[in-house]
Predict the structure.
Amino acid sequence: MKDNGENEQMNGAESLVHTLLANGVDVCFTNPGTSEMHFVAALDHIAGMRSVLALQEGVATGAADGYYRMTGKPASTLLHLGPGLANGLSNLHNAKKAGSGVVNIIGEHASTHIELDAPLTSDIEGIARPVSHWVHTSKSVETVGADAARAVQAAMVAPGQIASLILPSDTAWNTGGSAQGAIDLPSATPFDESQLEQAARALSGPDTLLLLGGAALTESNLETAGRIAAKTGCKLLSEWSNARLERGAGRVFIGRVPYPIDIALKVLEPFKRIVLIGARAPIGFFAYPNKPAILTRDGAEILTLADAGADLTAALEALCGATDATTTAPAHVVAAASPERPTGRINLENLADLIARAIPENAIVVDESVTSGRAFSPATKAAPKHTWLNNCGGSIGYGMPAAIGAAIACPDRKVMCLTGDGSAMYTVQSLWTMARENLDITVLVFANRSYQILRGELTNVGVQNPGPRAIDMLSLDRPVLDWVQMSHSMGVTAVRVSECEDLEAALADGLEGSRPNLIEIVL
Ligand SMILES: Cc1ncc(C[n+]2csc(CCOP(=O)(O)OP(=O)(O)O)c2C)c(N)n1
């Protein structure tokens, strides 16, 4: 970093880059424009920031989400004014719901230019606010460094927040910038100790549930939960969407509250008392005519011991002590097992088995498989140890971008990206970034050539016997999407398979190398 004497010469963009680096933000997922050129120039001559170009902003913001989940520290994004930010909103929404920290740097016109209402002028703060916990526009070059430090601080509020720093181009190009060194980062808030005794008393027997989410799902926290379950007889479940779940042989298995409303109601019906640690009380993903929105039984007693921003390890350990379970062996520890080798035409059951057989030790699995993945959780539970990432905001197009962020965060781990064909089309440009950065990602595209889930949802909302026009709006087969050609055109090798033997061979090939590759699975 330049010393104080040289700060006189530092422009705002340089003070921003130095400050981000000093505060541990050393990756930038970027799609810049003219108003961000000084930031680009600063990245060019200040060493230390890995800059990753994305061809659509949703790729950049989704990658920042995946990166935070795997490192626990924010990446930055560089976005071009209001429209560039707007393209990235969907995956910022997902990141916000996942509790991921992201530092968005959004270019703005020079302050003297805004009043002229040029074509790209927009209400950037207004666009940023719904997906951000913290929004600030730098007022002058002198404050850019301090503003950037506050942005990192805001992004690190547990479990992780979205910080959006808007940088007018004159604050970037003017000199007089001052870099801020490392600042204190916030720590998690304490859990609610006043609920501890009641929570410990509440858990007893199979009609009681310990429901976990967020940072409660690490390997060691799950082990603590397993001890509590063994001692009290309570059931364990996680939320439907988990930002990061550690699973596999040797770990405590935890199921998820199911997505389909009728099944979720059935699974939750038995529980009279529920203790929440890092999770919210279960609600329906959507409202459906004549179905409840609250998924727990009437009169269920629900206690929140710790919300997502609290110290969840401390909460679990305290609960373990209060239930006298500290020396109890954990329940639900999974023994290693592998399904039989399937053969013949691929269907949803043998697909799950093939994936379970292929997951490498220590892999990261990014899951946006939608209906094709309904059997994956039970089938893969005894695979070698791995990390599973779900889409937490329900806005599709998160999978391939999050896989990029995870691969950049963990270059020594294999990443498998499981995605529906409909979902993958939203951020298909991800393939180009995977190729350019030579990331170790194997993408499995489930080509059922339809928005299959919505066919089921038609029935769920009470539409009987949908006609051809309704079905046509949910069909992707006119024309058929050619994933092999698309992938090749962006520099990623690809194969198409429809038989188990071919998928098995393609997975072995793809996972053996360290280059990105794609397998189109025709269902
Ligand atoms: C941004 C966004 N647009 C639309 C939707 C509605 N939606 C939910 S699932 C889905 C289709 C998913 O298709 P695909 O990934 O092929 O999975 P499948 O349903 O076929 O299993 C759509 C369009 C959404 N969730 N998010």
DSSP finds 22 helices and 18 strands in the chain.
